[in-house]
Design a protein that fits this description.
Length: 597
Amino acid sequence: MIYENYDPYFPDQPVVDQYLPIWANLPAFRAKPAFIWAESGSSDVTKSSILTYEQLNNSVQSISSQLLLPPFQRGDTVVILCSPGLELVEVIFGCQRSGLLAVPIFPPKLSFTENDCHHLVRVLTQTKPKAAIAHSDYITHVRTYISSKSSTDNQLCKLLQNIHWISTNELKDKKMSTGLSLSTYNGCKQDEVYLIQYTSGATGVPKPVLVTSGAAAHNVRVARKAYELHPNSVITSWLPQYHDCGLTFLLLTIVSGATTVLTSPSAFISRPRLWLELITEFKATCTPVPSFTLPLVVKRGGIDKGNIPINLQSMENLIIINEPIYKGLVDEFVQEFRSFGLNPFSISPSYGLAENCTFVSTAWRSGSNVNQFPIYKHLLPSARLDASSRGEKEDIEIVIVNGETCEPVVDGVEGEIWISSASNCSGYLGQPSQTRKIFQGRLKNKASQCFVRTGDRGVVKGEERFLFVTGRSSDVIELEESCLAAFKVAERTIAVVAEMQRSEEKIGVLRTLGKNIRKAVKKEENVEVGMVVIVKSGNVPKTTSGKIQRWLAKDKLLGGKMNVVLQMTFKDNESEGNTRGQVIKENTIHPPFVSSL
């Protein structure tokens, strides 16, 4: 059943925040949970906090009233440094209702070491915020850090000193007027930038994407329609709430009138079974997860442990993000959890990126079985582009283009994925040349709207025009495992960095592993690997949602900042039988070796 426009007396709103007071004033929704925050114990869920639609709306109105007082003016930029939780949700919506430009980021560790604060320095330098919102304890630590620095040349200190700090405790304790007229709205308008969303940093240095209120509202409405979400939907998410899919599902919750159960990424990584328990306990119908989640839960899910028996029968949309999506990993997960009630019809391979707010497409349709999806190079599709053939209007136009000639390619030919929709973001903050290059793509010899050039490669196959996302540019090899990074380290040398998951002291075992990695890449990608580097656990950098940061992995490797256990180099076209791996350094920080390539 399609639930889009399920109530003709409830028209869609121009911005997401305007849905909130409507829900909060409906008798059936006042006490309905909008968000539930679940805490994790050692063996099961121990505690949860609830924020109803009425409570959320009142809190957002109170916060926005305070943020409209001096020294603030409408349009000022505010950095949000709140830990994951319900407070973060309230502050994000409060900023939108007050007309402020919000920049939510993960708060760095209170030690403020150089490695922890690179992104904070980047954000403060690029966005030039007037204020920062954080918990009072965090602000106390910031001020202690500033006062303890004897040198006035410290860049971070200067940046932190120039910011007006606002405590979430004060925002929550002060109760301002909660009256809001439904006929007038003074928050961020459709065409106004309300959010700076940083890209994940998986393929390059995180970039500040400018998101308008109208683009965000369009994006979650399209996602609501695609996944058939409605007020009876129950979503569970452990994704970071600061950007991309984690942030989008906060908005999607409000647009759908649904309930979302939240927990933190660290809680999931520490105990992956928590995700399964939340689905079971709250009878979740929808959950978005990165593709690496599936093998992680199969290996470390602790199915037979814990006090809550796992039951996944309620799941209707298991949304898999992060491309490429390999069928083998999905099949393994479905086989493992089918006996726990998981329905193969719930598997929803999807595609998205920050430059289009987040959501782009999904191959899922009601009644679709993952085993019925076509396969291309071991991949599952992430979209069906057959809407126009059925006489339907496409909410988001996807075209496969020859990146050099800017001409569309025929189905069956790989090219760059271009996207055009009302969800397209406005550009990158302070980067006009990159904005023109990425956000103003034009098809050759065609009078068309602007397209976002995604940098992702894809191919369209079959009568239903399934889209397969095959990877990024030629200098990146996509690997199935969640702790492998591959990239060029010289003009003709491809390196693969593999992170150990457990201690292994037998060099013979490590050599065999290195040879097998090289052999697998040759078989699957037809690419010769010139170097395999095995590093200790925790050395391959990842984003907060678990994506491999290949650019940073490459930088750390070339800079000698990885704890290398074994490095193997190979000659060009060296056969498997003649492979010679060499232990350069064992269990030490590897020195720079660029000159040896």
